[in-house]
Structure formats: structure tokens, C-alpha cells
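Repro:
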Amino acid sequence: MAAPASKSDAPAITEDEMRQQLAGKTFYIRGGYLDNNLHFTDRGQLDGSSPKASYTLSLVQIDHVHLDKHHLELEGVRYGLHFLGAAPYEDQAVDRVRLTSKKKPLRITIDREEVVTPKKEKPAKEDKKHKQQAPAANAAATQAASAASEPAQAPAAAQSATAASAPSDENRHGVTVTTSQAHANHALRQALDTIFASAVDPRMIGTLPSYWQLYYKDVDAKQDYRPSDPSVLRQSQVDQKARLVSVFDPPSNEYAQNNGVAGMSMYHVIVEPDGKAGEIAIGRPIGFGLDENAIDAIRKAKFEPAMKGGKPVPVVLDVVVEFRIYSKRTNVASTAAAEKSSAPQAPVLPGPYTANEPKPQAQPQPQAQPQ
């Protein structure tokens, strides 16, 4: 159904307006969609599917803007965020690392609400009205009788009438139709707000996992992590400290490997009395989607709980994770080193001697004499 027209309608949004609002600026894709070809409806909903990832892989810069009456087309660059080990109470140092190439840029298409001009109905002439009353009455009676004799056909006829009255466009299925340009302008701005966030604002933080929410809560307060449960103890307050007892090796990902992102990160983990991880907060993030890998591994890990007074108690344990780069060059070097170390080695001789020279004869040494 078409939206009603406004009495004081507005002019259509221009391409220059969109350029001023978007070009050269950076935004976060709220849904964390990873594909570099994304299509959104006129309501800002993803049309199709795309893998999702951390918001630290979802920063985009819009370089080119094209607007026509059917679509808003954007082209730009995707960046990954590499945190440089700052705690929440310290100044945040973050590197932006380009993920897309010039040959394969990020492309985003957003449908626009379609504006149509309502048809004006011509008033029927008085004389034609009187002449058509009788035939119309007879036609109505005939139609009623037909409907009574064939009740099963009425729903199909109603559906056909509805389909005929609704606007159709095979190439733009699902696009909303309006008779108000002001309404269409508002819909486009709402779609942009649904798709993009200009910063990590409270609305965006509310959609992030709890460990990021706790981190940004501490960033806002400029403080270190404090457990939500005040009964949770520190390691210095217990008789026996909690410790990790399972194999722990969080994986890297292709984005970090391809762009040389490595380093240390740290997480505050509440080790429950049953030895499982409870609340987790990021202490020093690394970004690039690696924090998610680390926390997933922490949740699967096994711990030995802390003890106090002979009973297990909940305690905060800081877990440090190191992410490394496993490039082809590193693998080749390590393989060569392994082969070299396993090969037979020439004897190591003292002083200036070599393996081709005769060894000197050992000289008898004086023996200690008993006193």
C-alpha cells in the first residue's frame, strides 16, 4: 500500500547531498557483514546472506557515491582494527589496516523507496450515471448469484483484483511504494542509520557481546575491570590460586595472517568454584577478530578453582594470550632449520684445528699425590 502524500512535500535528496554526508568518511557496518558486495533493502535490511564477524573487521571508508531514483550505490575500503595493547584506563592506540584491494573494493547498494504519482479519477457525468444505474444493478445481481453458486472461486478473484491494483516491478521486488517524496527521503536516511554507525556509540555497544560491553564500560569510566558480583575475590585474597589446567592455544584467522597482525592480549576471567569460566571481560584487546577467538577458547578451557578455608571460591584470573604469524616464509625457514639440525654435524675441534688435520696426541697429566 502506498504511503500517503504530504501536503508540503520536499524535493528529492540529491547526489551532492549524499556525497557531503558520506564521501571520505568512515563508518562501522552495524551487522558486521564480511562480504565485499552487500545489497540492502530500502529499510536497511540485508538482502541475501553474508558471513558475520567482529566489529573490529567492519570499519569502512566511503570513497565514491552514486545516487539515482532506484538505488544508492557506495564504493570504498574495508579496514581491520589492530589494538596496540592499551588498558581501558589508558589512551587507546589503534591501527587501521586496509583489508580490501583497489581491484576488489567494497561495494554497497541500498534500494530507495519508489515515489509514484497518484492517478486522478475523473468524475462521472450525471446523465451517464442514471443510464448506468440499471445495468449496474443487474450486473451486481448476476455477480452475487454467481458468487453464491461458486463460493470456491471468490478468494481467487479477490486475490487477482488485489494483485492488479498493487504496483509491480519484477526487478525491484519488495520495494516500498509511496506518493510522498518527503517520506522516501526519510526512509533513505533511516536505512543509512540502520546500516552504518559513525562511531562505537551506546546503540552499537548494546549489540556487541558482553565482553566488549564490559570493556567499553571500563573505557568510559577510565577504570580497570571490576566483577559484577562483589563476592568474587582476587588471586591475592585466596589460600590457593586458580590456574589453567587444559591445553590452551587460541587460533589466529586469515585476516590477521595476511596482514601480519600479531601480539599479546589479556582477558579478565572469573573462574567459578566448579572450574569453569564465568564472566569474561577484555582487559587489553588486540582486535582483528582475534579477541573473539581467544574468548571462545577460554570458555572451552578447564581451570583449577581457587581455594580459601578449604573450599573452592570464585576468583578473577587474568589470562594472557599471544597470537603469532604463521606465514609460508616462516614455515620454510623453520623446516630448513629442522632439517639442518637433524643432519650429521662435523666434529667440533678445539682451537685452530679443522676436521682434515690430524688430532694432537694427548699428553699425560700429573696425578695428585696423597699427602
